[in-house]
Specification:
With 180 residues, the chain is of the alpha+beta class. The chain has 2 domains: 108 residues, Ribosome hibernation promotion factor-like (Double Stranded RNA Binding Domain, 2-Layer Sandwich), CATH 3.30.160; 52 residues, 2-Layer Sandwich (SHC Adaptor Protein), CATH 3.30.505. The chain has 5 helices and 9 strands; from the N terminus they run βααβββααββαβββ.
Length: 180
């Protein structure tokens, strides 16, 4: 597993970096060597926010946590991500899709856009770009949940068009299929 560690307003020394890598090694049992992890630390008032993102093929896993110390925040984020993986393993097993990279683990265990008002005109404060991956709506819902987002954009292989799944206020999901 490739692990990139970044600090925003925090200096990440070699000793701390080795602790982070040691804690993140536990994900190798889930994903093997083909995973790429990014661990980001950032000061948030008196606390430290840790964001952990792991990309395996076209799948993303993401967790974040806030705690008074960086190592505590990292441990919480790791616990959240492990919980997500355990929660989703039965779904992945049922769908029997492209989750070959987690095959051993399953067998063993049974972008937000922020807007601010400035004189009634919205201002785009963050811009993200990402590759749109072909998948069905159920897999898109799974990805949305793993990223802990309320919507997810994907390419529908049946229609060849970009679709969007979103979480509704009633707890169910919606699918938007634009006409163009």
């Amino acid at each position: 597993m490739i692990i990139d560690i970044h600090g925003v307003g925090i200096k990440v020394g070699e000793g701390f970096e080795s602790k982070v890598k040691k804690k993140m090694q536990k994900f190798e049992r889930y994903f093997g060597d083909e995973a790429h992890a990014v661990v980001r630390f950032q000061h948030e008032k008196e606390d430290v926010r840790t964001e952990v993102t792991i990309k395996v093929r076209s799948h993303l896993y993401r967790a974040e946590s806030v705690a008074p110390e960086a190592i505590m925040s990292l441990q919480k984020a790791i616990d959240v991500m492990e919980g997500q993986i355990r929660k989703q393993k039965t779904r992945m097993k049922r769908q029997n899709r492209n989750y070959d990279y987690m095959k051993d683990y399953i067998a063993d265990l049974e972008t937000s856009v922020e807007q601010e008002d400035d004189e009634d005109l919205p201002i785009i404060t963050r811009h993200k770009s990402f590759a749109i991956t072909a998948m069905d709506a159920n897999e898109a819902v799974l990805q949305m949940e793993l990223l802990d987002h309320t919507f997810f954009l994907f390419l529908n292989p049946d229609t060849g068009k970009v679709n969007l799944v979103y979480k509704r206020l009633d707890g169910n999901y919606g699918l938007i299929e634009p006409e163009y």
